[in-house]
Write a structure and sequence with these properties.
Structural class: alpha/beta
Radius of gyration: 30 Å
Subunit structure: Monomer.
Keywords: Cytoplasm, Initiation factor, Protein biosynthesis
Subcellular location: Cytoplasm
Strand content: 25-35%
CATH topology of the largest domain: Translation Initiation Factor IF3
Function: IF-3 binds to the 30S ribosomal subunit and shifts the equilibrium between 70S ribosomes and their 50S and 30S subunits in favor of the free subunits, thus enhancing the availability of 30S subunits on which protein synthesis initiation begins.
Number of strands: 8
CATH architecture of the largest domain: 2-Layer Sandwich
Strand order of the largest sheet: 2-1-4-3
Largest sheet: 4 strands, mixed
Distance between the termini: 54 Å
GO molecular function: ribosome binding; translation initiation factor activity
Shape: rod-shaped
Length: 172
């Protein structure tokens, strides 16, 4: 039966290499030693022998407290996950015959979303006979493109999907 797969670095008796390069708890290089010898030296100091670079030849091991090492690695991973920004797609809906003031309000929101690092999907919905005047919608989307040229780039050019015209902007 195979032993269960453990996550994290190998340490003490889990190290499979016969010889390892050893670094003590002060950062001093002790040279290449037999693994058993290195484990014994680490135990004398009250620490574990932890494999920090398993792909090196020979593998590099350090005298560390394995519990503290795993705890700090977990904290570092949690901090990295917390500070990571996920890019969302925000949607702005308009009509082809939108009034100037309404347009400006929508553009403020677009600028705000782009500044936060989100993508913006602009949806232009046509109703009834407006569908016969798709060039008005295209002009409106070109105006949006011109107004956001400094902060955003077009990810998906304007295209029709049924009764809607869509365009996606993303931060530069």
């Amino acid at each position: 039966m195979t032993p269960p797969v453990k996550s994290g670095p190998r340490y003490n008796n889990l190290i499979t290499a016969e010889k390892v390069r050893v670094i003590d708890d002060d950062g001093e290089n002790l040279g290449v030693l037999y693994t058993r010898e290195a484990i014994a030296q680490a135990a004398e100091v009250g620490l574990d022998l932890v494999e920090v670079s398993p792909n090196a030849d020979p593998p590099v091991c350090k005298f560390l407290d394995i519990g503290k090492f795993k705890y700090e690695a977990q904290k570092k991973a949690n901090l990295a996950r917390k500070s990571q920004k996920t890019q969302e797609i925000k949607e702005i809906k308009m009509r082809p015959n939108i009034d100037d003031h309404d347009y400006m309000v929508k553009m403020k929101k677009v600028a705000e979303f782009i500044e936060e690092g989100d993508k913006v999907k602009i949806t232009l919905r046509f109703r009834g006979r407006e569908l016969a005047h798709q060039q008005l919608g295209m002009q409106l989307l070109q105006r949006v493109q011109a107004d956001t040229a400094e902060t955003a780039k077009i990810e998906a050019h304007p295209r029709m999907e049924g009764r809607q015209m869509l365009m996606v902007l993303s931060p530069k």
